[in-house]
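Appendix B. One record, verbatim.
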Amino acid sequence: MFTQIVVGADSSDTAREAVRKATELAKATGAQLHILTALNIETGPSRAHGGGYVEHDGPAKPLLDDLRSYADELGVACTLHHESGEPAEALIRVAADLGADLIVVGNRGMKGVRRVLGSVPNSVAHGAHCSVLILDTMGDA
């Protein structure tokens, strides 16, 4: 069904939920899992406190290593990616470079003003050249 799954993550609880669910999907389908975090150097640090993005000089490696723990627990092989640029653009670019057949993102930013102004899930859904799974990671929040 899927051979290459790319999941986008930052340090937020909703991103961790997306990684957890993407890992379960990779296990169920036998797909290779790629966990990606991205930072726009111009806006990343200012968004880090409210948006969950990893700061340029911050804990990208520890964050990715921590997110890998979900895959390790389920015995799923994964590759970690730390990219520069806008998160949605980085997800689309890496997925295309890998020939991924699925990008997984959480639904954070799909409601309210961010839905109008743009969000990672909306941007990925409109720009990806593969299937996109937008998971409900917000619940009733």
